[in-house]
Task: inverse folding
DNA sequence: TTCCGGCAGTTGAACGTTCAAATTATGCGG
DNA sequence: CCGCATAATTTGAACGTTCAACTGCCGGAA
């Protein structure tokens, strides 16, 4: 193993003190241009890279951002987090941050992990996913002044911290309008039990778009837990009512896949226009399953969301005390991906 | 912010020197039991946690393991890496390691990232995924004596470094035997173009199982790139030959989904026994799509693979120079998940 | 008694960096 | 050509930990 190149090596090579090398790296304006160049040349020639641990000891900053990786839950809706994490890691690199993973079974375990990571690793910031009502994690972090962003709105106290989210209502509204344009009037909705922020939000977009068109959404929706089998049942329910629906917007791709089966429209991946006369179905999240089956779905801009999360953190970290523009509340609009089923 | 609790705080509190505290943590046998207990009590009372950066400065070890997170490629086959990473993070925690993410567009970029992470963060080890022929990454790391494991065999030089992989051939062989038991004789295979280690391996298991049963596999297979549309075409090919197949084993769930469509057997998620008379289809990887569609598939034990990866690294790191038992070459057997399609 | 070896614990230095303060160099007006 | 302000650079200390060497102490063999 070759001797490690430290700031001292560079200093000797460039005939300056170590502090000057440090200044070139951190406060270049303090150094005369020609000296700066000489030092820079030495850095390049030696392939010097600042040691993060040593730097961290002095500054208390690790340039590490922690994010939780969840178990692939029901499977069909997983892979969203995956893409988000990838975006996060990719956005972090150019800002010279890195993403550290952790797992936690529940909120309490997650908070215990925060303690560990903060004291042992000096984590600079956290990215939280899957926010929910009465989220103890955010208050814990906020109380201690730890920088963090959530991917997902704070469902209880809107303005309390920076967040990035995708406008589910806008997505379902667009899906509904898409169906209205295609001539549908009786457009159903399969959603989750009230109380989940995400689910209520998505339902509201569908209701709003119908109201816009002067249609009463009463009796057009079904409520069920997430899952393919649940989707089948809910769709059958909607189809056997007094006035059956001709199209269904779903809260998830799982439900949509179930609906698709119930309406007899599931063959995988034949590109082409939607078949006329069929019950139209639209899912949510544009999962691999939707792509495979040809299910029209609503795609979240996950890469963009990750980039925004990182930008929010970076402004907070690099200029402490400064509020990001717009108070750091970012709502992104998802996009409808039309396929065979609508 | 409360004052930081350092080893010095603990030492004062327990009336010993800092070195004794350090010994309690790292070499307890050097400390008399009663002193040890006193120090331990102080640690607990103060909630002390060793600062990783300072520790790292002295020891050169970061307790950080780096792994690449890839973009969700074709989508349908993604989510495997996701589950693997989750397993990795989960297995790392009890061993007091953490997983650091990085991204890289190609092997060259990845090697550049190694340099950066090694010199800046003192990464202890790397976990490589997607090994392939002529993999420059492994040689680069090996040359520099950097500890690493690959998830995926080294396809060129079998014994060169520790690895964990899933026995694809065993998987396809089991799938094939499953079909043989169900009475099928003409069992086709849809695979990838020769040259990819993984693809060749999977094909060989199918061929071997047929040979076992005294069946000539000649003319029973199709070769194509990965993808749903490709699967459709390949399956049609197999079905229009002189002696059409009655069952198909596929190299991936994407191909299988295509095959399923070509054979008219794709409705999602109705549990129950396979329909008699239908062309049987078996996929590979047990992706969410397979679960959703009811496709019989071969599941890789990803959590187990991750655990093994970590164990291999941990033995290597905690006892330098020691070879793990079995020379660190671990081949896991995947499991057939029977569903509707076979 | 003297000396030695081993155990328990302490001391001082070092890891590589940045901060704060001190020193030296440079430019400018009188 | 001096004095002074400011720019440029250096010096010394510190961050929290572990390593290597050292000091006492006790028990047993010579």
Result:
């Amino acid at each position: 193993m070759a001797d490690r190149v430290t700031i001292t090596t560079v200093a000797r090579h460039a005939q300056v003190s170590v502090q000057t090398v440090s200044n070139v790296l951190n406060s270049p304006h303090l150094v005369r241009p020609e000296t700066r160049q000489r030092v820079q040349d030495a850095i390049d020639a030696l392939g010097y890279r600042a040691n993060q641990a040593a730097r961290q000891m002095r500054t208390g900053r690790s340039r590490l951002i922690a994010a939780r990786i969840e178990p692939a839950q029901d499977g069909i809706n997983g892979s969203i987090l995956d893409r988000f994490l990838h975006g996060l890691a990719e956005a972090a690199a150019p800002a010279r941050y890195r993403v550290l993973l952790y797992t936690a079974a529940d909120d309490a375990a997650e908070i215990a992990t925060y303690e560990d990571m903060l004291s042992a690793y000096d984590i600079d910031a956290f990215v939280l996913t899957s926010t929910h009502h009465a989220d103890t994690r955010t208050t814990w972090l906020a109380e201690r002044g730890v920088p963090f962003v959530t991917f997902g709105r704070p469902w209880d106290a809107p303005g309390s911290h920076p967040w990035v989210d995708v406008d589910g209502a806008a997505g379902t509204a667009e899906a509904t309008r898409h169906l209205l344009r295609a001539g549908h009037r009786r457009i159903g909705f399969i959603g989750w039990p009230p109380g989940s922020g995400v689910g209520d939000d998505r339902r509201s977009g569908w209701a709003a778009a119908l109201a816009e068109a002067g249609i009463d959404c009463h009796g057009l929706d079904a409520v069920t837990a997430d899952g393919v089998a649940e989707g089948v049942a809910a769709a059958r329910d909607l189809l056997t009512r007094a006035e059956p629906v001709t199209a269904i917007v779903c809260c998830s791709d799982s439900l949509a896949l179930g609906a698709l089966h119930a309406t007899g429209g599931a063959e995988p991946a034949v590109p082409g226009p939607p078949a006329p006369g069929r019950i139209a179905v639209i899912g949510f999240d544009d999962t691999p399953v939707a792509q495979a089956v040809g299910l029209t779905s609503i795609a979240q801009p996950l890469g963009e969301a990750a980039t925004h999360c990182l930008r929010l953190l970076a402004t907070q970290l690099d200029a402490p005390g400064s509020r990001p523009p717009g108070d750091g509340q970012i709502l992104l609009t998802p996009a409808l991906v039309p396929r065979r089923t609508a």
